[in-house]
Amino acid sequence: MDFTPITVVSASSPEISFSSKLTRQEALFLFAQMLKEIIARLKFESCSKDVLIEFCRIVYTNHDEQLRAIDEFANNYRPNKALYCLTNQSFISRILNRVVRTHEIDILYKLGFFIKQATIQLNRLHEENKVLIETIFMVYRGKTMSCLEFETVIKNNCGGFLSFPNFLIASINKKFAIDFIDRRLAMHRDMIGILFEIDIAKTAFDEKSPFALLKDGDVDNDTVCFSMSTIFCIQSVEQITNGEMLMWSVQLKLINNDDQQVQYIIASTRHDEVHANPAFHLGKLLVDMGEYKRAEQFLLSLLQDTAVLSQPRRLVRVHNGLAAIYTYNHDYIKALSHYHEVLRLSLTYL
User: What domain of life is recorded for the organism (predicted)?
Assistant: First the structure.
């Protein structure tokens, strides 16, 4: 639970455009928001579950316990069990935790049906527990990170927008979050403790970014689950003490996706051209994030996609992206080869 990455963007950022060079932080933020948009729009085939199961069996080939869990999932999983799998450290939650850090788009696509079902379940649970959730004003999440990451990502972006590119579980009990920080710092003394205090009061519900109360037998163990890549505003950052331990309190405010400033920043993820050709734009974001090898692998995989091969304009974008990557890596022969393809294909529709 402590390894979930964080993406931020400054409140003063202009509309983030795919046509311009982005900072790594802008690209990370937009990448997470765009994946969320794509998964919400995708229609998944009935075989999607089988494809994921087969992949997981390969990943856990030598882990008998995990293979038994995969068999259990194959036989008994239903869409209304998505949140249970997500919150109980299942093999799926572990793979999801990995790929949101490594940006393995192909695996995220395999998980897409599960992410969509968990989001639908959150919407339903919110409606069922609407009266209870409206009585909760603040929830808490503990995290540790390096001092440099904290300074760069959070402290220097007060007033900006923050997102966890995964589902986020937060406790209604502040002590649970602080105890988690204590345990982490006891094992990692070079880190600093961060207490996220999340204000969810009077936030208009957004079905694209649902959150819901997950009830436990003991009310003190109740948690709130936020959907993947929910956006928060960083309202304040201050140092606090807990006994003899120093930590940082980061006050977050849940933001509705219809917030005018958020809409302005992420508008490019909702352009028709992006929806018509999302794969290429994800590849470009990988480049802007500095993930050149991952971007190369992903763009090369698009050259095997019949939907791309049948569209010269899409092929031009892919070859142009590959040429830029090879130019950056000083592999000029490969770069020139792809630029030749750009020219050849462009002449077919100019």
Answer: Eukaryota
Q: Find the CATH number of the domain harbouring 176.
A: 3.90.176
What are the structure tokens assigned to 118, written together?
A: 């968990």
The helix or strand, by DSSP H or E, that contains position 233, with its residue range, turns out to be strand 231-242
Residue for token digits 């020139």? 336
User: Do 191 and 185 contact (CB within 8 A), yes or no?
Assistant: yes
Question: Last residue of some domain: 224, 242, 268?
Answer: 268
Query: Looking at the 3D structure of the chain, how many domains does it have?
Result: 2
Q: What is the pLDDT of residue 230?
A: 93
Q: Do residues 268 and 216 touch, judged by C-beta distance below 8 A?
A: no
pLDDT along the chain (350 residues), means of 10: 80 63 82 85 83 93 93 93 86 90 87 92 87 86 93 91 93 93 90 94 75 71 89 94 85 85 73 68 83 89 81 88 92 95 88
Distances (CA, A) of 45 to 34, 109, 115, 136, 254: 21, 12, 14, 38, 33
Helix boundaries (H) for 42-76: 48-59, 64-76
